[in-house]
Amino acid sequence: MKCPYCTNLDTKVVDSRLTDDNESVRRRRECEKCGKRFTTYERMETKPIAVIKKDNTREPFDRNKILSGLIRACIKRNISVETLNKLVDDIENEIHAMPGSEIQSREVGNLVLKRLRDLDKVAYIRFASVYKQFNNIRQFTSELTRLKENK
Predict the structure, then answer these.
(1) 3-state SS assignment for residue 99
(2) In angstroms, what CA-CA distances link 122 with 88, 116, 151?
(3) CA 67/CA 83 separation, integer angstroms
(4) What does the domain layout of the chain look like in residue ranges?
(5) Contact assessment for residue 62 and residue 46, using Cβ atoms and an 8 Å cutoff
């Protein structure tokens, strides 16, 4: 495993344990050269999933895209990265449990919105405004009204 700080290839595993969901292994590693520590996650390889974009192009499913969108939506909210990683794990597991090897990008977005609605309403609105491409205040207020009615 390459050190993310100095790119040295000699690292050692200091600690290894299952994550809370028992779906992956968390490993603490230490670089033999610079001595810095970092964490890696090892997960079982699953069937490859293609995401069908709005323009009908396909690209490989990338959990990091979901995570980065969630992190942006949750800025200055009291939500840990661990909570967001768990949310992405749940979404990824649900996608892999679906039949077939392709999913529409809007379906992925809806899975994210469904979970964000229960987690944090402000983060939900932030994510929805980008995902649904709000371009006027009426769309914002309409979504807020729907959110308020679905307590």
Answers:
(1) coil
(2) 18, 9, 13
(3) 11
(4) 1-44, 45-149
(5) no
Intra-chain end-to-end CA distance of the chain, in Å: 46
**16-61 tens-digit pLDDT:** 998 877 778 999 999 999 999 999 988 777 778 999 999 999 999 9
CA distance readout (Å), 82 to 67, 114, 127: 11, 18, 18
- DSSP-based three-state secondary structure for 61: coil
- Say what the pLDDT of residue 72 is: 94
**CA–CA distance, 41 with 120 (Å, rounded to integer):** 26
Positions of E strands within 5-113? 11-18, 24-31, 37-43, 50-52, 58-60, 102-104
* pLDDT tens digits, one per residue of 98-117: 998 999 999 999 999 999 99
Q: Are 111 and 95 in contact (CB under 8 A)?
A: yes
